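Before a colleague's protein record goes any further, I have to sign it off. What it holds is a sequence and that sequence's fold in token form. My question to you is simply how this chain folds and whether the tokens agree. Thanks in advance; the entry in question is below:
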Amino acid sequence: LTRLIIVATMLLILGVISCSKENLNLNNLDETIIVRHKNADMPAYIHGNGSEKVFIIVLHDGPGGNGLKYRVNTIRTEIEKNNAVVYFDQRGSGNSQGNYSDKEVSLDIMAEDVLALAKIIKSKYGNDSKLFLMGHTWGGAMGTAVLLKNQNHFSGWIDVDGSHDLKGEYNGNKISLKKIANEQITLNNNVDYWTSILNLVNNVNPIYDIQDFYSLNRAAHEAEIILAEDNIINASKFDFGIGTSSYNKLTALRNDSKIQSIFLNKNRVYETVSFTDKLSEITIPALVLWGKYDPIVPSSKAQEAFDNLGSIDKEIFVFEKSAHSPFLSEPTLFANKVIGFINKHK
């Protein structure tokens, strides 16, 4: 009798799962799933056209941040029309929760989190689902770590101003700011401001220093504003659509100091981690997208990523009017590049 009850219960559960899949509106997905892995619960918000079971998993910047802030401009209005987009809150970020130790926060474990998400998507929508991975800045390091662990789940990799060389970012930040400052001084644009940037770069510790790291990062974000004011790059556009208020409520900024402290002070990834020499192991189709005036991760890193990737089918594109976030400054062109890549490899 006990065995019969167990069998009946399992059949009932399978029936519920089956009905759930059949009733999903794949043409206009608006789903939230929770990834539970190694004492963390991490939400993934799925939006867009899933009729062909094509999904882009977005890995946000950080450490910290949140996934839904990427549901903006043409990612929301155009890319979601073409395929579904998965906005994932990483461990220790956004609306993720958990009771885990500092030892359970690492790039390796966070890569496993993404692979767990990939398995859940395929379980929910079918093993024939096609997954693409897109990482921006810190998400570039995350995505690289994921693919080096297991790239078999994915049909393609989209690297957007990604930090595949965390160890080199401190010096890269200095090189980029110095190059941009010298160019702008030559053009006689905001000479006093750019001279102050040169002074900052010349006076920071030549060896990685966390306080100088923060100073350079703040300067880089401020530099983008100045570049936009001088029409060197396009001003960032933030169109979240009708749901802006609910978006802000759902993704209210959390204090990211804990996750940042783990990676910057304890794991010290910005002093030790570089994937450059391992990029050749990534062989799936790849699209490298970069802003020409990126003051955080130099545009030279785009060519470095492209040259070192082991993919036979790979593309590179540098946005002439963008800095660190081309999806904010050249959203239409960004969507065209992403959609073209997805449609080619889906």
Notes: The CA atoms of residues 174 and 202 lie 8 Å apart.
